[in-house]
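Milestone 3.1: sequence recovery, worked example.
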């Protein structure tokens, strides 16, 4: 029984592929070729084409027969044994016919093509009923045309014929989405379309699929965004590490007698001196300010001023408005990243230092 099953399998392939690539729709009588060559017809045929970004396609043709009786099961077991013992006896004639089909498609599309990596295997599955399945696989090079961000498939099998028992599924990589599908598919699972032979008849110019890069892939813009985020995270970690390691200088006496205008002037001179010192220490390794968030720019200035500076200096050096500066400073203060206190009419920013702020507030109340 199994030799006749094999002949039936090859007949289906020849009818479906050769007729499609030749642009000829088989006559109704051709579908009966299986019955003429084998006593056991395949109950259904599942053809799966998986597209790759280089334009190649992995083909899988699964021929499923219901094993209703003990004789059916015994015959299929015998076929399994024969295929396991000598798979070349099955793949060689299959490969010869497929290569002829691919050569026809190559001439039709004017695109260099090839077929290789042929294999065959068998299995039984219980899918409500017991099935014996013979599956052929091969790779079709240049099955689709490709560009940088899309590929098109279908011209190599123009007018593909599906009989009532055949289902065709064409899938594509996860990071692509379908731009157009002709004709409309019977099913649209994730990253694939499915046509059933009992409801679809391809005509000239069908099937056609245009698939474009877009869902989960990294576009150039997304890649730049990721790089910027990584840079910002690294810069922020560098500033926090400096602060947490105690790199900023301790509080000075300039914070005493906060009610005195003379002391306020003295503090201003100290701040200006600190500014000059920090500016002189700046190196070419400083991060680009445009890559920093508003909060990180304030923390960067605070570091440059030795961990203590007037809020109005933030306005002057960053060119911000009073309202924007107050909003950013308030957010940093609420997050516990900075502290502030008053010296006369000036608002002074520091890193959190409970002792410094408590002493200053006490003296301001005296």
């Amino acid at each position: 029984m199994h030799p006749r099953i094999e002949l039936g399998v090859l007949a289906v392939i020849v009818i479906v592929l050769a007729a499609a690539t030749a642009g000829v729709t088989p006559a109704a009588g051709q579908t009966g070729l299986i019955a003429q060559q084998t006593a056991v017809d395949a109950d259904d045929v599942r053809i799966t084409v998986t597209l790759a970004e280089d334009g190649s396609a992995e083909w899988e043709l699964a021929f499923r027969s219901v094993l209703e009786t003990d004789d059916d099961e015994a015959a299929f077991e015998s076929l399994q044994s024969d295929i396991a013992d000598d798979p070349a006896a099955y793949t060689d004639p299959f490969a010869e016919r497929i290569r002829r089909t691919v050569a026809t498609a190559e001439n039709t599309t004017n695109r260099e093509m090839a077929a290789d990596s042929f294999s065959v295997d068998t299995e039984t599955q219980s899918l409500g009923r017991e099935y014996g399945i013979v599956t052929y696989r091969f790779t079709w090079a240049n099955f689709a045309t490709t560009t940088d961000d899309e590929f098109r498939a279908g011209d190599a099998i123009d007018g593909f014929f599906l009989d009532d028992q055949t289902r065709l599924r064409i899938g594509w990589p996860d990071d692509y989405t379908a731009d157009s599908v002709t004709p409309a598919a019977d099913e649209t699972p994730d990253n694939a379309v499915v046509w059933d032979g009992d409801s679809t008849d391809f005509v000239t110019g069908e099937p056609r699929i245009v698939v474009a890069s877009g869902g989960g892939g990294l576009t150039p813009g997304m890649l730049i965004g990721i790089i910027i985020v990584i840079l910002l995270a690294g810069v922020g970690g560098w500033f926090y590490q400096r602060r947490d390691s105690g790199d900023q200088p301790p509080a000075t006496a300039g914070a005493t007698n906060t009610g005195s205008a003379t002391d306020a002037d003295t503090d201003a001179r100290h701040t200006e001196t600190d500014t000059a010192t920090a500016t002189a220490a700046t190196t070419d390794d400083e991060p680009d300010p445009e890559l920093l968030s508003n909060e990180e720019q304030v923390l960067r200035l605070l570091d440059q001023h030795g961990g203590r500076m007037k809020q109005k200096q933030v306005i002057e050096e960053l060119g911000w408005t009073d309202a924007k500066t107050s909003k950013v400073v308030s957010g940093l203060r609420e997050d516990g990243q900075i502290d502030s206190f008053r010296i006369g009419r000036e608002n002074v920013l520091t890193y959190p230092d409970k002792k410094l702020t408590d002493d200053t507030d006490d003296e301001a109340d005296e």
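The first strand starts at residue 44 and ends at 51. The CA atoms of residues 46 and 167 lie 5 Å apart.
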